[in-house]
Amino acid sequence: MKVYDLAIIGSGMGGSMLASLNKEKHIIVFEKDSNLGGCASTFKRFGNYYNSGATTLVGYEKNHPLKEIFDRANVNLALEKSKIAIRVVQNGKTIDRVKDFEEFLSNIEKVYPNKNNRVFWQKIKEIDEKFWSLKNLYYSKYSLRAYLKTFLSVCELLKVYKLDLFKSAKSFIKESLGEISKEYQDFIDAQLLITLQTTSKDISLLSLSLGLAYPFHDVFYVKGGMGTIFDELLNKSEVHKKEEVLEIIQEESFFTIVTKKDKYKAKKVVLNSTIYDSSKLFKDEKIKSYYKQFSFNDQSAFLLNLTVKTSFDFLSHYQIVLEEKIPFSISNSFFVSTSLKEDEKMSKNGISITISTHTKANFWLNLEKEEYKKRKKEVETFIIDKFLEYFDKIDKEEIIISFSGTSKTFNRYINRANCGGKAITLKNIFKVPSCKTPVKGLYNIGDTIFAGQGWPGVALGVKVLEEELNG
Predict the structure, then answer these.
(1) Which of 199, 190, 196 is CA-nearest to residue 95?
(2) Contact between residue 265 and residue 4 where contact means Cβ atoms under 8 Å apart
(3) Which of 14, 199, 235, 354 allows an S-S link to 446, with CB 3.0 to 4.6 Å?
(4) What's the confidence (pLDDT) of residue 262?
(5) Are 6 and 30 in contact (CB under 8 A)?
(6) What is the DSSP letter of 441?
(7) Rounded distance, CA 457 to CA 132, Å?
(8) Radius of gyration (Cα) for the chain, nearest Å?
């Protein structure tokens, strides 16, 4: 049996980007689903294509790790830059999140006038810009070299941010904007739920800034669906689709990987599964206990996919912020992503729409079959009704296909029920898992590992792991 240099379990953002940087090695990538990309994949149903979750490409710009990785991997994509990153609609008012700072400031001032809006948003933008200009961003554990590099990274952060590094989001909002309205707070928190999977309640000023500032960067629509990114990243790698990994056994000088179809050997293994789902792949008690120390992040998404036959001219992204919470969710907002009319694949039979909101993973996992179907239908109906309230030029009859998914759906297809890792806070910063584990040759990557959510955060984590693997 041949021995691979590297086995990557899962074809999500982290695993695919890492594979693209190691094409010269003897590597193998396993994916349980028939589609590449995990929760950022594109899938086909009822003859139409839909994005399964993540629908914005951010960080594809000079001096960002994502652009660096894509350039090194010679990724060739058909991209359309969004003039408006997100149109936020709240109580009949519209705020366009655009890259141009002065234009955005004018937008926010019309809806939420505040004498310190410029102070607040300028600080957010500056902190974010400084972060992505840092040269030594690094976080890892379990070796003297890793701890030293992490220490040097923290020193750089302290030098750049000084006392701002210890400031909480909540205190900064209060000291800069004062006592703001519930509407304004909801606007801020709805943005953070998209990027950080949390609100401003318990996060740091640094996390707040990274979460709110992403529309100040270039935001792209990917023609042909997000899945085309993974096709490009993995086009020269040995990829085994529809081959679920059942067990990983640590041997003396390699790992044995047992799948539903065969057995494989690899010198090193990278898990693109979530940190919470990794223990079930091992029988070794030391390895299992390492993964079990990370408590499950009980947060997931409710996903609604539509095909709409309409002449209405959509933007690529909207966020609808409501006064009331969506049933059986933890959010009062939902995110709408639409395909471009000229996208021949995604819009072949009508506009492909992905709508998502945040919910608890265990709520859906623990429901009995009939109750599950009933609750799912309630949420689906509620969101469609609210969608039609805003897009009032669209008739209900123009929605020719609709179906939804929950944490139970994600778990069935891609072996993960939750949505990202826990947000980095001042309380848990030293408990955050690293890409390196205490087990020699075993690593993790993805959105439950440092450095954060979405393409930019995962790309930064890939850059760190690449240094660990190749020195």
Answers:
(1) 190
(2) yes
(3) 14
(4) 97
(5) no
(6) T
(7) 11
(8) 22
Whole-number Å distance between alpha carbons of 41 and 323: 31
Question: Which of 334, 308, 326, 307 lies closest to 378, judged by CA?
Answer: 326
Q: Are 375 and 328 in contact (CB under 8 A)?
A: yes
Distance CA 211, CA 348 (A): 34
Residue 450: the pLDDT is: 67
Beta partners for residue 4, in sequence order:
266
Mean pLDDT of the 332-342 span: 96
Rama region for 409: left / alpha / beta (φ>0; ψ in -120 to 50; rest) = alpha
Residues 6 or more apart from 67 whose CB is under 8 A from it? Answer: 59, 60, 61
Per the CB < 8 A criterion, the answer to whether 170 and 204 are in contact is no
pLDDT band at 113 (very low <50, low <70, confident <90, very high): very high
Rounded to whole angstroms, how far apart are CA atoms 10 and 446? 10
Rounded CA-CA distance 192/326 in Å is 17
Task: Characterize the bridge pairing of strands 399-405 and 238-240.
Answer: unpaired
H helix intervals, 12-100: 13-20, 65-72
Separation CA 408–CA 424 (nearest Å): 26
Contact present, 180 and 108 (Cβ < 8 Å): no
CA triplet 285, 289, 291: central angle to 5 degrees? 125
| SS3 of 314-379 | CCCEEEEECCCCCCCCCCCEEEEEECCCCCCCCCCCCEEEEEEEEECHHHHHCCCHHHHHHHHHHH
Could you give the CA distance from residue 227 to residue 151 in angstroms, rounded to a whole number? Answer: 37
Given this model, what pLDDT does residue 425 score? Answer: 59
Give the tokens for residue 84: 């408006």
Q: Chain-wide mean pLDDT for the chain?
A: 94
Cα 82 from Cα 215, distance rounded (Å): 10
How far is 85 from 295, CA to CA, in rounded Å? 34
Is the pLDDT higher at 445 or at 419? 445
Question: Which amino acid does the sequence have at 350?
Answer: G
**pLDDT greater at residue 96 or residue 196:** 96
Give the separation between CA 265 and CA 255, rounded to whole angstroms. 6
Q: How many whole angstroms separate alpha carbon 463 and alpha carbon 465?
A: 6
Q: How many CB atoms lie within 10 A of CB 389?
A: 11
What is the C-alpha to C-alpha distance for residues 394 and 403, in angstroms, rounded to an integer?
Answer: 18
